[in-house]
Amino acid sequence: MKVVIVDDERLSREELKKLLKQYPDVEILAECANAEEGKKKIEELKPDLVFLDIEMPDKTGFEMLNEISAIPDVVFISAYDEYAIKAFEFQALDYLLKPLDPQRLAECIKKYQIKEEKESQATVVTTKLDVDSRVFLKDGDNCWFVTLRDIILFESLGNYVKVHLANSHPIIFNSLNALEERLPSEMFFRANRKFIINLHHVTQISTWVNNGYMVKLSNGMEVDLSRRQSVKFRDTFSL
Fold first, then answer.
1. Yes or no: is domain 2-121 CATH 3.40.50.150?
2. In degrees, to the nearest 5, what angle opens at C-alpha 176 toward C-alphas 179 and 71?
3. Average pLDDT score over the chain
4. Among 114, 113, 73, 79, which Cα is nearest to 96's?
5. How far apart are alpha carbons 25 and 46 in whole angstroms?
6. Does residue 205 have a pLDDT over 90?
7. Contact by Cβ (8 Å): 163, 195
8. How much is the pTM?
C-alpha cells in the first residue's frame, strides 16, 4: 500500500508515520506540508492512499481535491468532527480525528484492505471501448444491454458507479478511474471527481464559479466542471 501524507502540522505527520510503521505493507512515498506540494506529489507518485488534513494555510484539503481530476482513496484527518459529512461527499474512505487513535487507524487500514480484496476478486475487463460499443449492465436481477450513446453520465458512489440512462439508473461495482481508461475520449469527459459525462448529451453550457463551467445534460441534470477540467475542456474543444 503506497501512501502520501498531506498535513501542515509536523508533529501530526510524525505521529502518523510512527503509527504506520506497524504495518509492513505500508510504504510512505512522501509527506507534504501544504496542499500545493501534496497535489504535486499525488499526481507525480500516484499513491494508493492519501492521508489528508483539511485545514491548511494555503488551501483546504477539499480545495486541493477539487483541483485533481483522478486521485486515489482518501482518508481525511482533522482535529474537528464538523467536516465529516462534507468529507464523505468526496467519497472518503475514512475520517480520523486528531490525536489519532491507533485502533481507529487499524480499522481504517483494514477497510482499505477489504476494499482492495473485493476489487481484485472482481473480473476486470480492460478492452478499450469505441463509440459504437454495446455494454452489458447488471444490477441485482435486472439486466441491460445498451450502446454507449444511451448512457448520459456515470456517477461515482464510492466503490460503485450509478449509470444514468434515460429511464433507469443501474448501479455497478466499478470505479470512475477504471471506466475512464476504457471509455472513448471523443464521447466521454471527466467533469470532476464524481462524474463522467457523455458529450453527446450536453444540451447547454454556462459559465460557473472560479472560471469553471456548468453543463446541462439531456436528462435535466446539471454537472459542474472542476477548475482543472474546465481548462482541459477549453483546450480540447475550443476553435
1. no
2. 125
3. 91
4. 79
5. 17
6. yes
7. no
8. 0.58
Closest CA to 226 of 212, 205, 206, 215: 212
pLDDT at 124: 52
Domain boundaries, the chain: 2-121, 134-237
Q: Which fold has domain 134-237?
A: OB fold (Dihydrolipoamide Acetyltransferase, E2P) (2.40.50)
Identity of the residue numbered 163: V
Residue 8 to residues 29, 32, 72: CA-CA distances in angstroms?
A: 17, 7, 20
What H or E segment, with its residue span, contains residue 136?
strand 134-139
- How far is the C-alpha of 148 from the C-alpha of 207, rounded, in Å? 27
Q: Measured between alpha carbons, how far is 61 from 115 in angstroms, rounded to an integer?
A: 23
Domains 2-121 and 134-237 share a fold: no
pLDDT digits (tens, 9 = 90+) for 140-170: 889 999 999 999 999 998 779 999 999 999 9
Region 52-78: what's the mean pLDDT?
Answer: 90
Residue with cell 483546504: 60
Q: What pLDDT is attached to residue 140?
A: 87
pLDDT over 90 (residue 33): yes
